[in-house]
Amino acid sequence: MAELPGGEASPRDPQAYARLLKDVREAVLSGVPSPRSPRSIVSASWNRSLAAQVDPDTGVAPLVYDSGELSGLRDEHPLAPVLPILRQTLVSIADDAEHMMIVTDAAGHILWREGAAGVLRRADGVMLAEGTRWSEDVIGTNAMGTTLATGEPVQIYSAEHLVRTYHGWTCAAAPVRDPETGALLGSIDVSGPLRTVHPAMLALVTAAAQLAEGQLRARLAMRDVRLRNRGPSRRPRLALKFLTDGPPSTTVDGREVPFTLRHAEILTLLALHPGGLTAERLALLLYGESGNPVTVRAEIHRLRTQLGTEIVQTRPYRLSAEVDADFLRVRAALKRGDVTGAANAFRGPLLAESESPAIREERESVTASVRRVVLGSRDASALWSYWETACGADDVEIVDALCRVLPDGDPRRAVAFTHRARLNH
Question: In degrees, to the nearest 5, what angle opens at C-alpha 105 toward C-alphas 51 and 81?
Fold first, then answer.
């Protein structure tokens, strides 16, 4: 049985070709003899899509991100810098041909969509919209999802889309890779109604993807030149005072920076994980099992705006600064057995108002560790330092230890005995 033409879908009679594809799809899905075999790339995609339990008759692309969430994703995405050149290359052509340009991330989420107004309105009706996900496993065979699945440019026409809803569309897409790492960054797609199909569509998006990769490569080269010309440079200094009975503080190179409790929690976790955290891992640490990576991405976007993109890096999320954090100093002092250093750096509980699971765990661990080594040291200064914090003020064991170790004539001894008497009553 002959296979339908490979490579790109470029029928001379679009309507007749669409009818043939419909017959082929119905036959394949029904398990009856087909008038022709589908293209091999389409057949393989159908098999993957059906294995993922995509419904061929009623499937619809899910909305994953709303407009507010998209803003942060776009700003952070590595394809954002090449969007202007993609507009120059594709959008004017798409307007003239009643098509639209689409750019997705590597997971198939539509981040940008631009083109002819009439086509955009029609696309809205079938959820071919920004914030929706078009990976094969959720919406079946389509140019964006299939090019991401295969890593190759592909054109999908009419009933080659597994889901019936999209049989009135034709689309061509090509993958874009990171020129430095080879990792898949996303896809570039041109989509439109059946009547607008053109044999040059696939070549056009392939050329646009190559142009985008060339721009990314040029940006890398410029970055390397700047780094060589700059030579060794000082990183900004990020100071975190989060062990306190009062309000915590954050400074960048000595400048006080306003921040929210959530941002303080994120900074704490990033400081504790210098190798970096994914959005998923950070969401779990911040919120527990109910954590949503989308919320984390939005918070990171706001934090980067507040502190500067040179301090909070992405992919993975990490701090690129000289970090001076009191909780890290306590950890280091405990590790080297420096009781005095740990006691002096510990000025209160870690972010006392935080309900984040990971912060609570770290807070309890740091407090318990400092208390244990201070009690074991029988060092009057270390005990007094701990007693002055909210954690030690009403700790009977700490006060009793002070009463035992403070020598006669030490003015602190009378204070300790008075406080112990008050606690006993």
Answer: 165
pLDDT at 318: 92
Q: Is the pLDDT reported for residue 230 higher than 70?
A: no
Structure tokens that stand for 150 in this block: 């295969």
Q: What's residue 206's pLDDT?
A: 95
User: Which residues does 320 contact at the CB level (< 8 Å), separation at least 6?
Assistant: 235, 310, 311, 312, 313
Domains of the chain: 14-222 (3.30.450.40), 252-323 (1.10.10.10), 325-424 (no CATH)
User: Quick check: 98 and 119 in contact, CB under 8 A?
Assistant: yes
Confidence of residue 298 (pLDDT cuts 50, 70, 90): confident
CA-CA-CA-CA torsion for 180, 184, 185, 190, nearest 10 degrees?
A: 130
Question: What's the confidence (pLDDT) of residue 12?
Answer: 66
DSSP state of 347: B
Tokens representing 83 are 């969007």
Q: Residue 95 and residue 113: Cα distance in Å, rounded?
A: 12
State how beta strands 322-325 and 237-241 pair.
parallel
The answer to whether 331 and 366 are in contact (CB under 8 A) is: yes
